[in-house]
Amino acid sequence: MVNEELIQISTDMKKQKAAVSLFYAEIIPLLIAKKHSKKQINQLKVKLCGKYHLKKIPTDIDIMMHASESDLKKIKKTLLTKPIRCMSGVAPIAVMSAPAACPHGKCTFCPGGPGSEFGDVPQSYTGNEPSTMRAIRAGFESYIIVFNRLEQYVVSGHVPQKAEVIIQGGTFPATLLAYQKEFVCDIYQALNDFASMFFKHSEPKVRNALETKQKFQMQANVGNQTVVIHVEKIKEFFELHQDIRAEGRQARINKKILAVKNKRRTTLEKEQKRNETSAIRCVGLTIETKPDWGFGFHGNALLELGVTRIELGVQSVYEEPLRVTHRGHTLADSIRSIRELKDLGFKVNFHYMLGLPATTKEMDVVGLRTLFDDPRYRPDMLKIYPCMVMKGTPLFHIWKAGKYQPMTTATAAEIIADFMRYIPSYCRVMRVQRDIPTHVTEAGVDKTNLRQYIDKIMQEKKIQTQEIRSREVGFLVSKHPNIVLEDPTLRVLEYDASDGKEFFISFEDLKNNALFGFLRLRFPGECLRDEMTRDSALIRELHIYGEAAAFGQLGTIQHRGLGKKLMKKAEEIAKQNRKDKMIVISAVGTRKYYKKLGYVREGVYMVKEI
């Protein structure tokens, strides 16, 4: 009987494998022959799965991985997943650090941390967020997280040569310095190793060009060289020829990834140097912290790691909410942290919470306006998080006792939608709610698509906004494919912020309110490093929008000389104000770009006498 059952199982497996092959053999030509919408593709998949009696519906990635080289080129655009992620010019990679307790204790609304209601998860997280789940599967090994994320970008049709890494998981500077260095070193090494394993440089004039094209399936230009991505090798290493949901697959892959990492010993400095010329470069490195762990001396240590942006948990412009929620910092700490981080050159992204205990709706409305009315704040970027109630938190017990009433979805959407009209053109709204599934929350905003509610209110009330995200040319073109773009105009917005002078220099299509790129120039209020003098100017950010283009490649918007023109204008403004030295906070992967513009390495910065 057992032998008969085994024979039957084997027969069924062979039939299923044959049926899967027939599925791909039919669907790929259909996708090539006619353009399909995402809805039509899903309907087609369901229809063919029924025809061939498949047990699982193949994903778009499955289809791409079973296409030939020539067919892949034809169906890639149709099946390309999550194009918005690369629309701003870079491929974001979220890396979660290991769970660790905050030195000051826990904020009353914080759901995570070691031994939390949700298990051993990072502070502020529940373990149900996509980035947290990826980290858990990788054992919080930053090398594995980055390696797997790069693979996901490649198989979904993207060329992730510009990686913007965001380290999540709580107050990163509060962890041991040795852990910080190892964690970040592993990130750089993963970018470098993935590139060296699966990306290949070849000279433009290749004798056997046909053989090269047949062997490699994706290409991009890097300077005067061609970079080809060895997709077949990626398929083999990540076992993509089989069901990607197969049991034990991820554990086997993680083991292989660690084996690659452990082949050699390395250091942070060595991997940073490698990354300067790697085919996959880190063009931005972000960490999360609280204001009391975001002062100048913390920032100096972060500069050594290559950090360029700080996500700062300001949370409120009122003292009492900070006290009753046990934040562990004061308004004075926030103001000092913002000033010192900007004077070191960092881009600063505020986290701001609505509906906190000890606040009212009216206070929230005024508080949001204060972020820009008061020059001590004025963030470069902003994440707005309505306060939510989750089990295991002190706030949960306060709510259960009837002493706290969280903000509703309707109220949050109304406040944020109205606030959008007041946001200046130098600020980007990154998020309007946490990436936490509503099924793990007990009270508060009960919709995961809050931004859609906000957009609807803005449309109904005809609210216009000048914030960066809504004006990025890539987003505008994706929303309005028939838009006719005008030649960009160079604009300069001057404003005071955190005891310094800021210049937001941008290229914009004034007719369509489209933003092509911008630069943040600062005259700091204080010199906090030896590289700086009283006559120094700081470039805190240079960003050109459009779908991410490979280094040296003429992409949709990027690499058309706009960056150089913005740099030239910044230097002109600095010289007009009697500055004689320009300092750039450069990510490790963008140092080579600034070298081409005449900048040289000095300490942690790229500098130029002007």
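That was protein one. Protein two is written in the same sequence-then-structure order:
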Amino acid sequence: MSHRVRRSIRNRAVAIFGGTFDPVHYGHLRAAAEISERLKVSDFRLIPAGCPPHRDGSWADPFHRLAMLELAVAAYPDLHVDEREVRRNGRSYMVDTLESVRAEVGDVPMLLCVGQDAANQLDRWHRWQELLRLAHLVVMTRPRSEPRYPQRLGQVLEASRVKRARDLMRSPAGLVCHVEVTQLAISSTDIRNQLGRGWDPRFLLPDTVLSYIRKHGLYGTAETGAAKG
């Protein structure tokens, strides 16, 4: 008896999930996978920040973070790594990234995916008022959580909010949708701290990423392979 594999029909939308990914872990990957599947996005891009404007410095070189992210998604064909911010000179501002991607993809729906904590501080982002001109905003929320937007930001986002994610596929940009995703209690900070103390963070991030960290002596680990570079 033959069985036909059912393939989901994907939208033409492009999803953008930016971050330092320092290092990337299963919390990042699970959120990306759920958004990609639920919204049936044909092009889901994880974009590591080159020089993040909201941090004094990251713990790993941008090209190490890029390499770790590529290792993490290698087995998942629906997730892609976009290296434009790492290759760009100067600060990494999301509005510049969205303008760059928009120029490439044309008028397809574009989704900027952010966590609830980041969304609560969206008004601190560079040229934040222009984000909805370039993309829809997908806020990845925790179960049973409520947003805590400052008044002005909340007014802007609520005025553009839709309840159904499929409504985002009807226009290129301008809408806001909250999508609940599984929240794993994993953070890059905790992983860095564990590694710095000599603890084993296995099962918090892909084995390939952990091997890379140890090989290059990142986050205070001892180098066990090639020289750090």
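Residues 11-218 form a domain with the Rossmann fold fold (CATH 3.40.50.620). Keep this in mind for the problem set.
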